[in-house]
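Minutes, project check-in
Item: structure for the 481-residue chain
Input as provided by the requester:
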Amino acid sequence: MVRAEHLLRLRAVISRRLGLSLDESRDVELGEILARRLGERGRRDASAYLDALETSDEELRAIGQLLTVGETCFFRSSAQFDVLREVVLPARPRSRGEDLRLLSAGCSSGEEAYSLAIFMCEWERRCEPATWLRWHVRGVDLSGRSLAKAAAGVYSAWSLRETSAELRERYFTTRGREHELRADVRARVTFEQRNLLDASSALSAPEAFDAIFCRNVLMYFTPDAARAVVARLTAALAPGGVLFLGHAESLRGLSNAYSLESSHGAFYYRRPESRPVTAPASAPRTAERAAEPLAPPRAASPARVDPPAVSSASQVHLDAVRELVSRERFDEALDALTRMPSFAGAEVGAAVLRAVAHLGAGDVDAAESASAHLLAADEGSAEAHLVLALVAEHRGDRAKAIEHHRAAIYLEPDFALSHLHLGRIQRREGRIDEARHELGQALDLLAREEPSRLVLFGGGFGRAGLVALCRTELATLGGAR
């Protein structure tokens, strides 16, 4: 019989040995997994099984793969492949050697690693200039079951839903409802079963990889485990190399060894050519690109730097203006901001209020100008990005609105209101899986969202109303909670 103390101990073993973050909300799932493993292993004594789990790597991997199996597809987040093609690889120096190496960390059933292999085959087919003679793709994952599927190279149409018809025809053989990847492409990828927390041959060679994809992996780990994994990835990444994370993930609080860059509507992390210093970078850089639509966040340093303390006098003035905005007296709020004395530490709050008041008053151009001015001052304001996203929505530019919401989330991953607005846009765009994810994030985060932000960006809803809105939106998507 599985008891509460067994689940508590199981969570502790999983956290310590796998670094996975689990709380009581997953106890039902853990109980089912433990009961299943006891049955499959012919055991009745949960305590004896947990004793054995302390030293059994094989059994631990079996538990881990049941907890972390994720849905993926070929060429997911295609903008990151655009960055790889148009920014990263053309800038690769010849001094890096004759072998180009790409890593898919947490590769699951192989879709990401094989996407990289197809990408490189296309590079060769188009005879693009290269600074390498050979290329290799390595995939690493904890789950032996997922890696067995990857080795077979057979996928459903759902896995290919974001793959063009041209690439499907060129690289896959269709057999009934299944699609088999060409053998010569499969041969260009090596898979390895490893826990990213453990010493791994894929990650043991220093500075071996030119680019690492580790998408939607860090979200599973505890903060300490995530820092350890990032440190291992950093050691394996060449100076000047690039790390790609999932769009809802960030290195904030995990590493200061990177600069955050933006191009083609995607964010990514670059390890500087020189050795990283302990002080965080003051601002991310934007890779050169003509007509770049989105200014990158200005201060997404891995460790958040708090703004100067706001004096009590200035806070009183800001609270008074915020009250005017909450009552939709936007002209009065703008007048109060114009007459507000200059107080140390209050500039950012005043700038955000000014942008929101302009937007509420219907002066979209002024709201955009105020937000852009705030970003140009290297303040790295997630709230300014949210205002710019709302401006873009007002103008019917959903693509730019999505980019700004993602910028806000990169700056502050717990910004519930940006998750909420982003999820609603994605629902209207028909991006159902992404909408469910963002709305679920918003629902989880709304309980601790700052009251002042609810006033400014809640659209007239209080906390309870926004929670109800999230649940309604999720229900329409078949994801009621």
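Outcome recorded: The two ends are 29 Å apart (CA to CA).
No further action items on this chain.
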